[in-house]
Amino acid sequence: MRVKPTRKEYSGEEVTIVWQPQKCIHSEKCWRNLPEVFRYGQKPWVDPNGAEGDKIRNQIEQCPSGALTYIGQDLQKAAEEGDLQAQLMPNGPIVVKGSIKFQHADGSTSVEENPVLCRCGASGNKPFCDGRHKKVGFKS
């Protein structure tokens, strides 16, 4: 079952941050590395004016799932170029580096940057990982 996509935009002076929560695997890199922007437990949890634009963009580019992006990232072009790498995470998902164009069962398409794909079968957001491999004790 595919989770309905949600997209939230947080516009600041230097950058507009895009968050797609259904893609998040809760790696915690955003709020651990840039807590002045990604404010865990606060609402709104994103402050796009909390740091310089370049610092924010750099942190967003570290997001392993692609749940965080920013306006201006050229995902469609990257998907057409097709430069992909995939890493099997121990006891976890497949982390893809690059953009993939997905054709969904309902006929819609989407371009996903750095998708993190489920290997355990327990995700409620297949084919994407939602972190449930930890709860089910997936080992591989």
How much β-strand is present in the residues? Answer: 15-25%
**How many DSSP H or I helices?**
4
For the termini, the CA-CA separation is 24 Å
Work out the count of structural domains: 2
Briefly summarize what is shown.
This protein has 140 residues and is of the alpha+beta class. Helix content is 18%, strand content 22%. β6 and β7 form a beta hairpin.
Characterization of the model:
The chain has 140 residues and is of the alpha+beta class. It folds into 2 domains: 8-70, Alpha-Beta Plaits (2-Layer Sandwich), CATH 3.30.70; 75-134, no CATH class. The protein is built from 4 helices and 8 strands. The chain has helices at 29-33, 53-60, 75-81, 132-136; strands spanning 8-11, 16-19, 68-70, 85-88, 94-97, 99-103, 109-113, 116-117. The strands form 3 sheets. The protein has a 3-stranded antiparallel beta sheet, with no helix packed on it. It has a 3-stranded antiparallel beta sheet with strand order 4-5-8, with no helix packed on it. A two-stranded antiparallel ribbon has the order 6-7. The relative contact order is 0.18.
